[in-house]
Specification:
By secondary structure, the protein is mostly helical. The chain has eleven helices and no strands. Helices cover 64% and strands 0% of the residues.
Amino acid sequence: MGHESMTKIKEKFSLKHAIIKEFLAEFLGIFVLILFGCGAVAQAVLSKGALGGPLTIHIGFTLGVMMAVFVAGGVSGAHVNPAVSLAMVLLGKLPLRKFPVYVLAQFLGAFVGSCAVYALYYDALMAFTNGDLMVTGDNATANIFASYPAKHLSTLNGFVDQVIATAALILCILAITDAKNLGAPRGMEPLCIGLVVMAIAVSMGFNCGYPINPARDLGPRLFTAVAGWGLDVFRAGGCWWWVPVAGPMVGGVVGASVYFLLVELHHSEPDAPEETGTKDKYEMITVS
């Protein structure tokens, strides 16, 4: 196909409204995150550890986050997490009117990503379960898609776990993208954010995994509820489902507030730079 034909196709079909572009970017970004992350869990669970384990799951989610940022970063800022979007709203980096659009895209993308993992591993899932999709027990498979608490974990401790882990995530993301701090070299932000997820995984994953993302947990949980696991996905763990939804949202506020009050608020104002006609390399796409 020639260059002229491609140009005509782009002119005819390309979207003009920024919010629609951002919606699609967030949708596709978290779709990729779920595909790699939950796909890694599925491979570990369904192979009974022969083809995966905690380390491969951590790598899957780390790479999933990295690729999600590459996919959506230049369009929407690649929040792919309602807690990140909320933090950006609080800091004035995302207009409030865009917040529900971002969150809807994130939940839908996570749901559809779960559909893709289910389709990818359908035969293996049926062979593993003999068609009996269980939420708890030795042959549980609902944990492929959403988080469930360890036996030792109380609801309160689980909530605190999610607040702390998500606050750490938000704080580090803000540092990585802060032009007045060291920041990350342009193009290295996805790698740095992925490494933050890896750090959280290996240091804070014992209690309940590390959902740290309401869309990543609730979207797939809704999928399992309608795909055959039933409403037990909401009852299990003492109605655990709300903890990885509410905890990360509180953690997002905490992380944003801590970074702003302890670091960003105290940046000295630089001398007025010369006009270069280019944006700062760390300027959030979502500011406009």
